[in-house]
């Protein structure tokens, strides 16, 4: 069978909106081209000063040395530190594989894909002229020497000339695509060095937002005193209360185009292009218009779903539960049963270093000479491997994840560590969906790292005398009940009854119920109710099924019983709960 190409994506903070969109474009286009994608993403951008813990996040990128990668897409702009940029430049260059940058300007070694946007930038200038009648328009473009800054400034010249409007060198200024230059520019306007214009068009949203904030501190109102527009839609959060008129940059298309160019470099062939719908001007208050909110019903449903998952995650006790596990088996079982809190997830894997396994499992793996082992695999269908060590070299993780023969795959890899102490790696996949994880997943990884560290510390403090160790009263029954509990959580709608469980475990009813509560702190049916209601809340928030059907899907024979139990546990009726998620 012909080897499927594997693309590495080097980025950071991929839960940010614009990086999320670029990754979706890359993954969607790679799937169309039958290629695998491995995203190596740190949870932060290494902004100075870099703490020792954050510095070790960069250890993730040594996976780029794996011979399984055929090329890389490198989001150099995602990293704030020049030191980490240089480190990654050297690392990727040493691989000898083709590298494609994302909107990063010219580079001495790597190719670059830029967003070609003169037509879209001109629409904002036209809007100021034709809709608002402005004539004296300034332009704050980007960093001198960059292709984007030059292109947007030339577009400004062309539009002004086309309308016969006056401009000279005082009308345009180079910025920095960041917040420092706009503040200095605002001071020139405030001091009177530059006469106040009718409007200012900025080359990106970040500069526009900083400019509005700086003008506002001096009492200059936007848009009453001067209108301002941004561009590109890269801004996640504004500094002020004025919504920004902008043109959302198609980061999705940028990612897709970068992949297509990289694919051509690797193979000498072109691949079929994704069909991408372009958006229009995003109307905000900063130009003087009333803001217009355009959001497709599909996007609204997605936002409601993400909001519901976010609420479930932060209302859960997952950190408390992870920190109170007493063994690696318990910790991994809990991780497998709580990963459902990540929206749209499909598969989740944990690779632990052999050193960490030896530290927490009393030398059970002392003979292992490989760098790490896969100890957990679980999927959305409820299948899970639990602890199943498969020794592999660190650099073989990529080939191990991409060996699926039937269809291309995309995995997001995250390091598991506490300061310089490396525990291993987590890998998350969304299956065939071109998705990216939300910030809650980063929190989940942090929780997991804390629990792994605490488990290792507990192991150090645990008495080494075999007579002093606290083992479950019935270890065999404990393992059986762990599996049963996992099955109950994955399939709470099944017909669970104590008699069947007694037959499976070969113990009496009273002993079974007593030991279950001792091990897990709740009765069997107390937990079953929790699992059923958790599934019900998920279905109420993410589907439009009738509530009677949801009751049936969660294992309730009658709607009345479901509604009564739901109200007693949650505090509101199922219909009222659904309304809060709309």
Which features does this protein show?
single chain; alpha/beta; Rossmann fold; Beta-Lactamase; ten-stranded mixed sheet; 21 helices; 45% helix; 13% strand
Structure description:
The strands form 2 sheets. Strands 5-4-3-1-2-13-14-10-11-12 form a 10-stranded mixed beta sheet. It has 4 domains: 141 residues, Rossmann fold, CATH 3.40.50; 132 residues, 3-Layer(aba) Sandwich (Rossmann fold), CATH 3.40.50; 166 residues, Beta-Lactamase (2-Layer Sandwich); 104 residues, Arc Repressor Mutant, subunit A. By secondary structure, it is an alpha/beta fold. Helix 18 crosses helix 21.
Topology overview:
Blueprint: E1 6-12, H1 17-32, E2 36-42, H2 52-55, E3 71-74, H3 82-95, E4 99-102, E5 111-113, H4 118-131, E6 137-141, H5 147-162, E7 172-174, H6 180-191, E8 199-202, H7 205-217, E9 227-229, H8 251-267, H9 297-315, H10 318-323, H11 328-338, E10 347-353, H12 354-360, E11 372-379, E12 391-392, H13 397-401, E13 410-418, E14 421-429, H14 439-461, H15 475-490, H16 498-505, H17 509-520, H18 524-542, H19 547-553, H20 559-570, H21 574-581
Parallel strand pairs: 1-2, 1-3, 2-13, 3-4, 4-5, 6-7, 6-8, 8-9
Antiparallel strand pairs: 10-11, 10-14, 11-12, 13-14
Q: What would you say about this model in short?
A:
The chain has 582 residues and is an alpha/beta fold. It has helices at 17-32, 52-55, 82-95, 118-131, 147-162, 180-191, 205-217, 251-267, 297-315, 318-323, 328-338, 354-360, 397-401, 439-461, 475-490, 498-505, 509-520, 524-542, 547-553, 559-570, 574-581; strands spanning 6-12, 36-42, 71-74, 99-102, 111-113, 137-141, 172-174, 199-202, 227-229, 347-353, 372-379, 391-392, 410-418, 421-429. Helix 15 (475-490) runs parallel beside helix 18.
């Amino acid at each position: 069978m012909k080897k499927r190409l594997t693309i590495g994506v080097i980025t950071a903070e991929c839960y940010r909106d614009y990086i999320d969109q670029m990754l979706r474009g890359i993954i969607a286009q790679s799937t169309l081209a039958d290629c695998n994608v491995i995203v190596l993403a740190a949870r932060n951008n290494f902004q100075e000063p870099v703490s020792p813990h954050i510095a070790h996040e960069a250890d993730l990128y040594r996976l780029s040395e794996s011979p399984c990668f055929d090329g890389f897409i490198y989001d150099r702009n995602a990293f704030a530190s020049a030191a980490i940029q240089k480190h990654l430049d050297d690392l990727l260059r040493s691989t000898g594989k083709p590298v494609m940058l994302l909107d990063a300007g010219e580079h001495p070694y790597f190719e670059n894909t830029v967003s070609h946007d003169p037509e879209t930038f001109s629409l904002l200038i036209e809007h100021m002229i034709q809709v608002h009648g402005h004539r004296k328009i300034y332009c704050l473009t980007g960093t001198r020497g960059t292709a984007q800054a030059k292109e947007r400034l030339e577009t400004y010249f062309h539009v002004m000339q086309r309308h016969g409007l006056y401009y000279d060198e005082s009308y345009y200024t180079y910025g920095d695509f960041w917040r420092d230059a706009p503040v200095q520019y605002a001071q020139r306007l405030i001091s009177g060095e530059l006469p106040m214009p009718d409007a200012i068009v900025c080359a990106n949203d970040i500069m526009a937002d900083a400019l509005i904030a700086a003008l506002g501190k001096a009492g200059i109102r936007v848009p009453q005193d001067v209108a301002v527009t941004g561009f590109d839609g890269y801004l996640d959060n504004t500094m002020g209360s004025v919504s920004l008129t902008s043109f959302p940059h198609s980061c999705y298309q940028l990612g897709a185009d970068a992949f297509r160019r990289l694919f051509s470099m690797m193979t000498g062939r072109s691949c079929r292009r994704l069909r991408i719908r372009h958006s229009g001007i995003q109307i905000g208050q900063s130009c003087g218009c009333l803001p217009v909110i355009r959001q497709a019903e599909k996007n609204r449903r997605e936002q409601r779903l993400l909001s519901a998952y976010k609420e479930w995650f932060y209302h859960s006790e997952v950190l408390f539960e992870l920190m109170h596990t007493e063994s690696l088996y318990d910790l991994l079982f809990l991780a497998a049963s709580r990963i459902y809190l990540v929206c749209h997830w499909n598969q989740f894997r944990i690779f632990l270093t052999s050193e960490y396994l030896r530290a927490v499992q009393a030398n059970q793996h002392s003979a292992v000479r490989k760098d790490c082992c896969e100890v957990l695999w679980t999927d959305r269908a409820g299948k899970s491997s639990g602890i199943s060590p498969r020794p592999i070299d660190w650099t073989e993780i990529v080939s191990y994840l991409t060996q699926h023969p039937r269809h291309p795959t995309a995995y997001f890899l995250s390091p598991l560590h506490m300061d310089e102490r490396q525990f291993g790696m987590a890998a998350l996949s969304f299956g065939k969906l071109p998705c990216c994880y939300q910030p809650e997943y980063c929190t989940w990884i942090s929780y997991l790292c804390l629990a792994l560290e605490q488990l290792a510390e507990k192991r150090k403090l645990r008495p080494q005398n075999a007579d002093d160790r606290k083992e479950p009263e019935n270890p065999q029954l404990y393992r059986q009940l762990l599996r049963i509990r996992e099955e109950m959580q994955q399939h709470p709608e099944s017909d669970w009854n104590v008699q069947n469980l007694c037959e499976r475990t070969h113990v009496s009813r009273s002993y079974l119920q007593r030991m279950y509560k001792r091990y897990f702190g709740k009765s069997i049916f107390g937990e079953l109710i929790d699992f059923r209601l958790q599934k019900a809340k998920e279905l109420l928030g993410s589907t439009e099924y009738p509530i009677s059907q949801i009751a049936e899907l969660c294992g309730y024979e009658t709607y009345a019983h479901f509604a009564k139990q739901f109200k007693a546990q949650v505090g509101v009726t199922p219909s009222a709960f659904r309304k809060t998620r709309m």
